C-alpha cells in the first residue's frame, strides 16, 4: 500500500475520519508533520513553510521529545571563548556554544572570557550533586507523622532497593522527611550520573512510595509535592541544591581589568555589592546576580537541556572583592543547575554538536563526569557574563553596547 501524502491525511482530518493526534499512526512522522502544518496553516492563515525546514529525525523526536509535531524552530548559535577551565571533571581550553536571539549576549560573554584568559583561566568545581523528587503523604495527625518520619529514617535501605530496581544507573543518596501538620513530604535525592535524571527520579520514587504505603499508615497524595522543587523559584534549592551545585571563580589582575574591561577592581566590587547583593535583597530576589539566566538559558538551548529549568539554574550568587594585591577576585555559585549529557534533547543532532564542541557528548568515564564538566562550563560562562556586565556598568558602556549590537 502506498504512503499517503500530507494532503491525503489533511483531507481525512477535515472529513472527521482521522484525529489530529493520530496522524503518525497512518504515515511516517515527516508526512504526518507536513499534514499537520497544512491543517494549522489553513486554520490560522499563517505561513508555516519555515517551520518545515528542520534537520532532526521527526520519527525520533515524536513521543520522546514532542507531540503533535509541526516542525522546528531555529535559534542562532554563537560561540564564546576559548576560555581555560581548571575543572574537577575536565580541564583545558574550551569554546562555549550559546543559542540566543539577544544581540550583544555572545559578545558580552566573549569579552568576559577574554578577561578570564588574561588571568590564566577560571577554576570550577561541582560541590554537590543530586536530583530530587518529593512526594507528599497524608497521615492522620502529628503522632502518625512522627512515626512515618522514624520509619523512613530506619528503612532507607529498603527504599533504596525499591527505587534502584527501576534503573541501571540511578542511586538513592538520601531521603529527608519534612512534616507540615498532617502532611509528610519525603525529599528523595538521587545520583543520576550523566543524565539530568528528572524522569529517572520520578519513576524510582514511585516504587519507593509503594513500599511506604504498604508498610505504614500513610497515603500518597501526589508523587510531586513541590518540595522537590522543579521548575519553580524555591529557597530549598538555593540552600540544599538540586541537580549540580557548582562554583566558578577567577582572580583578574588589576592591569587586565583596566586594559580589557576599562574599569577598576574597586568599581566592580562596589557595583556587585550595591547591585547584586543589596539591590537583590531589597527586591526579595532568590538569586543575587546580574544576569546568570542569560548564560544558563543560552547554553541550555544549545546543548539540549530542559529550558524550563533555567528557573533553578539562575539561582546564583555572584561575589566580587579586591584582593590584598589590588587585583579582582570574582566568583559565581550556582546552587541548582540541572543538566545532563544523555537523554532528552541531548540526542538531537544540533544539540549533540554543541555538546561535542564542549567535549562532553554522551556518557562520561567515570559515570557523571561529562555532566559535571558541562556544569563547570556553564558556571564559567556565567562567570564571564557577570564579569563583563559588572565592568560595563563600571565603565558606563552598557547602553552603548546594546545600542550597537542589540538592535
Automatic annotation (TrEMBL):
Pfam entry (one): HMG-CoA_red
Reaction(s) the record says it catalyses: (R)-mevalonate + 2 NADP(+) + CoA = (3S)-3-hydroxy-3-methylglutaryl-CoA + 2 NADPH + 2 H(+)
Pathway(s) this gene product operates in, as recorded in its UniProt entry: Metabolic intermediate biosynthesis; (R)-mevalonate biosynthesis; (R)-mevalonate from acetyl-CoA: step 3/3
Keywords on record: NADP, Oxidoreductase
GO biological process: coenzyme A metabolic process; isoprenoid biosynthetic process; sterol biosynthetic process
Entries under SUPFAM superfamilies matching the protein: NAD-binding domain of HMG-CoA reductase, Substrate-binding domain of HMG-CoA reductase
InterPro entries given in the database record: HMG_CoA_Rdtase, HMG_CoA_Rdtase_cat_sf, HMG_CoA_Rdtase_CS, HMG_CoA_Rdtase_eu_arc, HMG_CoA_Rdtase_NAD(P)-bd_sf, HMG_CoA_Rdtase_sub-bd_dom_sf
Enzyme class: oxidoreductase
EC number in record: 1.1.1.34
A molecular-function term among this protein's GO annotations: hydroxymethylglutaryl-CoA reductase (NADPH) activity
Signal peptide: none
Similarity comment text for this entry: Belongs to the HMG-CoA reductase family.
Listed NCBIfam families: HMG_CoA_R_NADP
Protein name (record): 3-hydroxy-3-methylglutaryl coenzyme A reductase
Originating species: Halorubrum ejinorense
Taxonomic lineage: Archaea, Methanobacteriati, Methanobacteriota, Stenosarchaea group, Halobacteria
Amino acid at each position: 500500500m502506498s504512503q499517503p501524502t500530507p494532503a491525503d491525511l489533511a483531507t481525512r482530518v477535515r472529513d472527521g475520519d482521522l484525529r489530529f493526534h493520530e496522524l503518525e499512526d497512518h504515515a511516517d512522522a515527516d508526512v504526518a508533520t507536513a499534514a499537520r502544518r497544512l491543517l494549522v496553516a489553513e486554520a490560522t492563515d499563517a505561513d508555516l513553510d519555515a517551520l518545515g525546514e528542520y534537520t532532526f529525525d521527526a520519527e525520533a523526536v515524536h513521543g520522546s521529545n514532542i507531540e503533535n509535531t509541526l516542525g522546528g524552530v531555529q535559534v542562532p548559535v554563537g560561540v564564546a571563548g576559548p576560555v581555560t577551565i581548571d575543572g574537577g571533571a575536565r580541564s583545558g581550553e574550551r569554546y562555549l556554544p550559546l543559542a540566543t536571539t539577544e544581540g550583544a549576549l555572545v559578545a558580552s560573554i566573549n569579552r568576559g572570557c577574554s578577561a578570564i584568559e588574561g588571568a590564566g583561566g577560571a577554576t570550577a568545581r561541582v560541590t554537590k550533586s543530586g536530583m530530587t523528587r518529593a512526594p507528599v503523604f497524608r497521615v492522620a495527625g502529628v503522632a502518625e507523622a512522627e512515626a512515618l518520619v522514624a520509619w523512613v529514617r530506619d528503612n532507607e535501605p529498603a527504599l533504596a532497593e525499591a527505587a534502584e530496581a527501576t534503573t541501571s544507573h540511578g542511586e538513592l543518596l538520601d531521603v529527608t522527611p519534612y512534616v507540615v501538620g498532617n502532611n509528610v513530604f519525603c525529599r528523595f535525592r538521587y545520583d543520576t550520573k550523566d543524565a539530568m535524571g528528572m524522569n529517572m527520579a520520578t519513576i524510582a520514587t514511585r516504587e519507593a512510595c509503594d513500599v511506604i504505603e504498604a508498610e505504614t499508615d500513610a497515603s500518597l497524595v501526589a508523587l510531586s509535592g513541590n518540595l522537590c522543587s522543579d521548575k519553580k523559584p524555591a529557597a530549598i534549592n538555593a540552600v540544599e541544591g538540586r541537580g549540580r551545585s557548582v562554583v566558578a571563580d577567577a582572580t583578574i589582575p588589576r592591569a587586565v581589568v583596566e586594559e580589557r574591561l576599562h574599569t577598576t577592581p574597586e568599581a566592580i566590587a562596589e557595583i556587585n555589592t550595591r547591585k547584586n547583593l543589596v539591590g537583590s535583597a531589597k527586591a526579595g530576589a532568590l538569586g543575587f546576580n546580574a544576569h546568570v539566566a542569560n548564560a544558563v538559558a543560552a547554553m541550555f538551548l544549545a546543548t539540549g537541556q530542559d529550558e524550563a529549568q533555567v528557573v533553578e539554574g539562575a539561582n546564583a550568587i555572584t561575589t566580587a572583592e579586591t584582593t590584598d594585591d589590588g587585583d579582582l577576585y570574582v566568583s559565581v555559585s550556582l546552587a541548582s543547575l540541572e543538566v545532563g549529557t544523555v537523554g532528552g534533547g541531548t540526542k538531537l543532532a544540533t544539540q549533540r554538536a554543541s555538546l561535542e564542541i564542549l567535549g562532553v557528548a554522551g556518557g562520561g568515564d567515570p559515570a557523571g563526569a561529562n555532566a559535571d564538566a558541562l556544569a563547570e562550563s556553564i558556571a564559567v560562562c556565567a562567570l564571564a557574563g557577570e564579569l563583563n556586565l559588572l565592568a560595563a556598568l563600571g565603565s558606563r558602556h552598557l547602553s552603548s553596547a546594546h545600542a550597537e549590537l542589540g538592535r
